[in-house]
Amino acid sequence: xPETWWRGAAIYQVYLRxxxxxxxxxxxxxxxxxxxxxxxxxxxxxxxxLNPWYPSPMADGGYDVADYRDIHPDxxxxxxxxxxxxxxHEAGIRVIVDVVPNHSSVASAWFQEALRGIxxxxxxxxxxxxxxxxxxxQSIFGGPAWTQVEDGQWYLHLFxxxxxxxxxxxxxxxxxxxxxxxxxxxxxxxxxxxxxAALLVKSESAFEDLDGVHDIYRGWRRVxxxxxxxxxxxxVWLPDQxxxxxxxxxxxxxxxxxxxxxxxxxxxxxxxxxxxRTIATHAPLGxxxxxxxxxxxxxxxxxxxxxxxxxxxxxxxxxxxxxDLELGYRRARAAALLAMALPGGVYVYQGEELGLPxxxxxxxxxxxxxxxxxxxxxxxxxxxxxxxxxWSGEEPPFGFSTGTPWLPQPEEWRKLTVEAQREDxxxxxxxxxxxxxxxxxxxxxxxxTWLDSPAEVLAFARESGLTCVVNLxxxxxxxxxxxxxxLASGPLDGERLPPDTAVWLV
Length: 506
What we know:
Immunoglobulin-like; 18 strands; Oligo-1,6-glucosidase, domain 2; alpha/beta; eight-stranded parallel β-sheet
């Protein structure tokens, strides 16, 4: 692939803890991941993005990083990580790692020094206000965003108390993270995903999307550009595309996750407007759009699309709301063809290609997400989309491990294993494999041309001559003129496209 490989890449997200376990302890690891590289190669993805694999107390699934220059022993060793990078490259797969610059871990050397009164200006330590916290900020995970230490000062944590926020006004913090980028680029990593990218710079009264954050990413871009073919992708949750666009200026991040598309309801007018808005925002910047249906923080797409309200909002997760999984499965198949046909890059979250639903009945005592604890056991959190992948067999652990998985797998997943779907021509896995192979030759980076269609239908053509048609209405619609059908998300009704179905035509 060219040096700007990310512009049209299909990138597969690996939540390492839940992907494949190589040593039988019930936790996914590098040995398991390396053993499954042939699966990823055959699936047809161009790159993998791994969630944090560094030493961590695991207060938030590894997003409380204690040391960026090593690997958590649950996952393996630094030497194994370097071997994985080499083997992935040999398989034609690029590697993206996760960096968490908003906050650290209470176990990090820097924070332990801060507790002893050394280098507190690397973090947000403040004195009490009227005997209580410095202000009324609330944690994203619930509860106060401040925790008091023994000498009476308070430190800021926008997430869990185990994740103290860095002070990005300190040059030492800036230098440290630029060195972390170099450390991994030197080991062959092709890209870096930036967690909570809009939260780094803070004032005494605000902590999101402040102007100073852009100077940080200009520095990171200079580091990335000093290595050929490297990229930065931001996790930027902002309410509008115009604010997002500021992170994609030519001297900042290369791409950012398109959460507007992820959160969009399965409705024709909303999706059409979202796609138009995304392309209009990115085009003047020369930045490629990305298309994302799910990730490790949101309910799985099969479950979301089966609900009466198919949109997504972190503030209203709708946990436990009834979902018609058959309807959600049909829509998820159509959405996959839509996302892969759009111009730019596409992200696939592990298990999406298997049609896995959200697991909503995990017993409370087995839940791991700090959201569950911080909310007083009222918000189930994100464990339901992080349940380990089913590979084979008729009962748990479904080939994921020889031990007990760290989160329980549903018995009914026997029908959704890789083994069960591999030879099934009508399976979700087969659909993804066919679509990703076609996409590599016919789609990816570029532009689209909208075609005339009924209001409930999305129809557009790509430069290769491929036409994508998606019926979001309640009645079948006639297909536009074409020579042949390349791929459809479900059975066609002669020359008509059924509801909640997508098709690729030439």
